[in-house]
Amino acid sequence: MRFVWPHGGTNVCLGGSFNGWTQLLRMSPVEGNPTVFQIICSIAPGYHQYKFFVDGEWRHDEHQPFVTTAELRIVNTVLLSVGPNYIDGLNPDNSTRTTNMYEDDEDSEAFRRMVRISDSTLTDTIPRITEADLQASRQRVSVFLSSHTAYELLPESGKVVALDVDLPVKQAFHILHKQGIHMAPLCDTRKGQFVGVLSSSDFILILRELGNRGSNLTEEELETHTIAAWKEGKAYLNRQIDGQGRAFSRPLVHAGPYDNLKDISLKILQNNVATVPIILSSGDDGSFPQLLHVASLSGILKCICRYFRHCSNSLPVLQLPICAIPVGTWVPKIGESNQRPFAMLRPNASLGSALNLLVQAQVSSVPIVDDNDSLLDIYCRSDIAALAKDRAYAHINLNEMTIHQALQLGQDSYSAYEQRSQRCQMCLRTDSLHAVMERLANPGVRRLVIVEAGSKRVEGVLSLGDIFRFLLA
Length: 473
Description:
Elements: E1 2-5, E2 12-16, E3 25-26, E4 28-30, E5 33-40, E6 46-54, E7 57-59, E8 66-69, E9 73-80, H1 105-125, H2 131-146, E10 163-164, H3 169-179, E11 183-188, E12 193-199, H4 200-212, H5 219-224, H6 227-233, E13 239-241, E14 247-249, H7 261-271, E15 275-280, E16 290-296, H8 297-308, E17 329-330, H9 351-360, E18 365-369, E19 375-380, H10 403-411, H11 416-423, E20 426-427, H12 433-440, E21 447-451, E22 458-463, H13 464-471
Parallel strand pairs: 10-11, 20-21
Antiparallel strand pairs: 1-5, 2-3, 2-6, 4-5, 6-7, 6-9, 8-9, 11-12, 13-14, 15-16, 17-22, 18-19, 21-22
Helix pairs in contact: 8-12
C-alpha cells in the first residue's frame, strides 16, 4: 500500500497501528516533486490508524479519512478490506470520518511509546550549540542593549496618551478601549508630576470588587467616580496583583531618555509590568515633566531584530528551534510534571473564571480551546477594556457572562485584519528563535501560541517576557 504526504517538509516519517506504533518509517520525496513524500508498506487487511511525523511535529492529512481519539488526538484511517495487494492511494472510500472510535489500552500505550521514539528522533535532528556559543550570543545581545538608549525607541511622529487622575474611572477605561491601548500613565496636574499607571489589571481589580464583594456605589456614582477616588478609597492606583489576587503597593516604574535598553528591559521584567513610561524630568523652572514615550519589550525587541537581521548567523542561538531551548510555557506531556501551571479555557467558561486565572497564574492571556484543545481564540487582560463601553461593566455578572460573550463585546472595535493578524498569533515548536522574535517584534503582538501543525492543538505559549528572560539570563 502506498502512503502519501503531499504537504511538504524536510524530514517526513510514517507511524501507524499496522506495526503497533513501534517504528517510524522514513518517507522519500517523489522525484520531480520535492513537496510530496511517499512510502510503500506491506500491511494486513483490516482497519488501521496512521499519522505523519513532519519535521518534529505529529500531523494528519485533512484530505484523507480521519477520526478523533482520546489518546492519539486526530489520526488518519484506512480500511483495507481486500488482500495485501498494492493499492495506488490511501483509501477507496473518500468520505471523512470524524466520529470518536474505541481505543484500547494496548494501542494507547503503543502510541505513547511512539511519542517517546519521535521525541528522541527530534532530539537527534535539531541543531545544537555549545554552552560557550550560547553565552557568546547572549553577551552580544547584552552589549547591544547596554550601548543603546531609550531615545532610539522614540518614533519620528506619533501620540502618547496620558490620563488625568481626576477622570472618572469608566471614562478612563473607555478611552483606553477606543485608543486600542491597554495602559496609560497618570498625571496629577495639581502636584505637577506623573503619579502612576492605569492598566487592564486595575480594571480587573475593580470588576472583581464590584462583582465578587459587592459595592455600595450607585450607577450614577460609577459614572462619576474618579481615578483619584479609587486611589484614596480602594488603593488600586500604583498597585500590583499577587498570586492570591491581593493588591500590594509599589512606586511608579519609569525611565529616562538616557537610560540604556538593557536597564529598561530589566525594569520591565523585575517589576512584572508591560510598559515603562519614558519621562524627561522637569527643569529648575518647575515646568511639568514631559512624557516622551511608553517603552515596551516589543519596541526593544524590534531594535534587536533590526540590528541583527543581516548578521543572525553570528548569533548561533537564533537558529535553534524553540523546542530546543528553555523558553516559554509548555503543556506537560504524558507522565511529565510541569513546574508552572498551564491554563486553558473553553469558550463557554465564565468571564469570572478567566479573570481568576489571569490573576492567580499571573499571566497576560489564556488560550480559548475546543474539546480537542485546538486553538479558537485567546482572552487577554487588555480585552477587559471592552467592558467599559456602553455601560457594560456596571451591569454584568462575571459568573454568568461567558468568555465568548465577553469577546463579542470587543469585536466591533477591531477590523477583521487586526483580529486575524494580532489576536491569535501562532507558531510551531520547530520554528527558530529568530523567526518567533521577528513576529513578536510586530506592534500589538505580545505572545505566540505554540500549536501542533494541522490540528492547531495548543502546545504552549511564548511571550515577550520569555524571550528577554532567556536572552538576558
